[in-house]
Amino acid sequence: MTEVSIREVGPRDGFQNEPEVLPTADKVGLVDALARTGLRRIEVTSFVRADVVPQLADGREVLAAIDVPDGVARSVLVPNERGLDDALEVRERFEEIGVFVSASQTHNAKNVNRSIEASMDGLLRVVPRAREGGLRVEATIVTSFGCPYEGRVDRAVVLGLARRLADAGAQEIAFGDTTGMANPVQVREHFLAAREALGDVELTAHFHNTRGQGLANVLAALQAGCESFESSVGELGGCPVPPGSTGNIASEDLVGMLHEMGVQTGIDLDALVGAARAAQALLGRPLGSHTLVAGPIDWRVD
Ligand code: ZN
Predict the structure, then answer these.
(1) What is the CATH classification number for the domain harbouring 202?
(2) Residue 250 domain-assigned (yes or no)
């Protein structure tokens, strides 16, 4: 493996979980900075109900104000058909949508207040409509590696949902460890099985660093052939349920590790650390990323 793709999800997965609502201009500034690091995919915001996620109620304004170079794909999260309708009103401002469903009934119910089948009914309409609108579609299976409410999640259920979403038109399937339960052995087996089950659909790993296993899981996924990862600047992020779910793997920790292993990302690590510092300053508290504390490895030091 010599090159992988990274999607930055801090502006959505990260900001969604901040207790305070950030000013729109600050969000725009961070997206613009991230878009100049060499990242080619950024999840900018979400079209969820403003009363459910007030932190992202200004998604439309953020999309209108950001200034992203050509070649950087802007993505928005769409929870359901109404979210897609809202997003399509500003269709020219993004290239990709993300949809999601949990592989655990209890997590899905707590997260979006409906059954897996009810979620799938909606998504199987959303995905083809988005494709007809010329959008690229990523579908994430949340709690792919375990559920804090139900424990083990049957891999056949996870891959079955993935297969149906891919058949409906999703070009990319992400497996989410939203609550930080995955281990590297399980991740390796999972991605080998997913490649078998899903043919040439793009497979993406979405790991949270809840228990410090995020980068070990990245290595396992990489060794099983995964070439696409999601991460969050500064290790921002979490999950609305359950409480205690902490951030995504930090983008700068991920990029630093990959570069040290000789895996290219196209990202300028110093610029990315600069963006992480800016995010830390915005939020006014130390963020979880290790590279923010230690700085990138410098082999020239004597
Ligand atoms: Zn996440």
Answers:
(1) 3.20.20.70
(2) yes
Task: Indicate the SS3 state at residue 107.
Answer: helix
In a domain, 300, yes or no: no
Burial classification of residue 70, based on how many CB atoms lie within 10 Å of its CB (0-12 exposed, 13-18 middle, 19 or more buried): exposed
CA 251 to ligand 1 center in whole angstroms:
13
Which residues lie below 8 Å from residue 176, measured CB to CB, with a gap of 6+? Answer: 100, 140, 141, 142, 143, 144, 206
The span from the CA of 259 to the CA of 255, in Å, is: 6
**170 within domain boundaries:** yes
Which domain, by its residues, includes 247? 5-294
- The domain tally of the chain equals 1
Residue 96 identity: E
Query: Is residue 53 situated within a structural domain?
Result: yes
The catalytic residue among 4, 239, 254, 258 is 239
Q: What is the pTM of this model?
A: 0.96
pLDDT in tens, 109-136: 999 999 999 999 999 999 999 999 999 9
Instruction: Assess whether 239 carries a catalytic annotation.
Output: yes
